[in-house]
Design brief:
Elements (H helix, E strand, L loop, with lengths): L3 E2 H8 L2 E3 L7 E2 L3 E2 L10 E3 L12 H6 L4 E4 L7 E3 L3 H16 L2 E6 L4 H12 L5 E3 L9 H6 L8 E5 L7 H8 L4 E4 L7 H4 L2 H8 L1 H4 L6 E5 L3 H4 L8 E6 L6 E8 L5 E7 L2 E6 L7 H14 L4 H10 L9 E4 L5 E4 L6 H17 L7 E5 L9 H14 L4 E5 L2 H14 L5 E4 L2 H11 L5 E5 L7 H7 L7 E3 L2
Parallel strand pairs: 4-5, 5-6, 6-7, 8-10, 8-11, 9-10, 11-12, 12-13, 13-14, 18-22, 19-20, 19-22, 20-21
Antiparallel strand pairs: 1-3, 2-7, 14-15, 15-16, 17-18, 17-23
Length: 473
């Protein structure tokens, strides 16, 4: 974070100083929410969670070098006390971003946010110092913490924005007002919370409503609900996608022999070929979105194509492909799941299997619950199970309770797989099955919603296989 005195921070957040001998002491380190991450000069923000109260770690944080604590009550060490720590953190982020004057890129969407954010970060780093959301820290705490890592040298601030309800994106976008707002898609993620795709579109579109007149709304030309957001902003519109009218467009989209997307990138300044390191055709849309942002910020089509062709994954457990020494390939895409991303991952698995030909190994889909789908849950899980059959995935292992049984039943009813689709109770049961069944050349996809914790399966399969090569990095 930029250097600020405790007195300045107290004024910005409207807080009261407690046990601070010298208000001129400065915060020179990061703002952290975990006392284990405190560095000298940090500001420790204490939150009272359901299981852990950060205030209980205030003394430890100061002993570790924190300049002070941002807290909801006095804690016996230097502290700035506020009524609402979340709100104070947001106010501090807004003040810092306003002082910096850096170009803020905000992005949202139902699927692909993190992968696209990682691509944008890798493109913009070629232009200048860039700060971006680590992982999926895209809520009212993660976003300001990320923004506060920006310094005077930061040229681009790329912020992923998530929503659990109407008004959330509006709140986040006003903390760090973007000049460029990117909306990727409107899908089924969080359908149980929002009730309909139209309600999801209403929430996602809040991002373009806050853009200034001299800003740019980057919208998906292939998604009607996203394209319709053009009427909700005063900013200039830049369309991306495969539609003929897209300003940044992908043509001649194809898959390489090993399942990686390739396409011809067209921008208003020219065209160039892209062959990605990432796996799965769904990354084409993500890449075009990132290309549109990079084009808006002045990168040439040649620079963009080169950067996209070299880009890897920055966030864990998202189509993370590792080949074990024995020839088994593990695809860890277990960070999260919704119907759109689940279908994309299955298609990528099928493509990887096809690339190995008739003499290759089998494809395994180890799938778990897609959370927060509400009344659509049964139909969506059934549909994913059926798609696995249609894509000729060799084996389906459905992991978990009721939703997993729907996955398995959908597969069974679609293709009468019998023993080819299996329902197991938990991650350990899946690991035991796979360890006994896998053979060289097999490809295993692991995917479910974050709450399921299915990454344990992928990690267990890779134990004692550290010499395997991680692709797409």
């Amino acid at each position: 974070m930029i250097t600020l005195s405790l007195a300045e921070i107290a004024e910005i957040v409207g807080g009261q100083s407690y046990d601070i001998p010298d208000p001129a002491v400065t915060v020179t380190g990061p703002v952290v929410i975990d006392s284990r991450e405190v560095a000298p000069g940090s500001l420790f923000a204490a939150f009272a969670g359901e299981r852990v109260d950060g205030h209980d770690y205030a003394v430890r944080a100061v002993e570790a070098g924190a300049a002070a604590v941002l807290a909801a009550r006095p804690v016996g060490v230097p502290a700035i006390v506020v009524d609402d720590v979340v709100g104070a953190l947001g106010a501090l982020a807004r003040a810092v971003v306003e002082r910096l004057g850096t170009t803020v890129v905000g992005l949202t969407g139902s699927a692909g946010k993190t992968s696209t954010k990682d691509l944008i970060a890798q493109l913009l780093q070629r232009k200048g110092p860039t700060v971006w959301t680590p992982g999926s820290l895209n809520n009212e705490i993660g976003l300001p913490v990320t923004a506060l890592t920006a310094t005077a040298e930061t040229e681009h601030l790329v912020l992923e924005m998530g929503a659990r309800g109407v008004g959330h994106i509006h709140y986040l976008a006003n903390l760090t007002p973007p000049r460029i707002g990117l909306v990727l898609n409107v899908g089924s993620a969080h359908l149980g919370e929002f009730g309909s795709r139209e309600a999801i579109a209403q929430a996602k579109g809040e991002l373009v409503e806050v853009l200034p007149e001299d800003g740019c709304a980057v919208l998906n030309a292939d998604d009607p609900l996203v394209r319709a957001m053009a009427s909700r902003t005063k900013a200039r519109i830049l369309l991306f996608g495969e539609a003929p009218e897209a300003d940044v467009r992908g043509e001649k989209v194809r898959m390489t022999a090993d399942g990686r997307p390739a396409f011809e990138l067209h921008t208003p300044t020219g065209c160039s070929d892209v062959t990605m390191r990432l796996y799965g055709e769904h990354h084409v849309s993500n890449a075009l979105a990132a290309a549109a942002v990079a084009h808006e910020l002045g990168m040439s089509v040649t620079e963009i194509a080169e950067a996209l062709s070299e880009a890897g994954t920055l966030s864990r457990w998202r189509m993370e492909v590792t080949e074990r020494p024995d020839g088994v390939t593990v695809v860890n895409d277990a960070y999260n799941a919704n119907p759109e991303s689940m279908r994309a991952a299955l298609r990528a698995l099928a493509a990887m299997g096809q690339a190995r030909g008739a003499d290759g190994g089998r494809t395994w889909a180890v799938l778990g619950q897609m959370a927060e789908l509400g009344d659509a849950s049964l139909a969506e899980h059934d549909a994913v199970g059926r798609l696995a059959v249609r894509l000729n995935v060799s084996k389906l292992v459905a992991v978990g309770g009721r939703e997993a049984s729907w996955l398995q039943l959908g597969a069974y009813n679609e293709g009468s797989w019998g023993e080819e689709s299996v329902h197991v109770s938990d991650a350990q049961a899946a690991v035991d099955l796979l360890r006994s069944e896998l053979r060289p050349g097999d490809v295993v996809l692991v995917k479910a919603s974050r709450s399921v914790g299915l990454e344990k399966v992928a990690l267990a399969l890779l134990e004692n296989s550290t010499e395997g090569e991680v692709a797409g990095r």
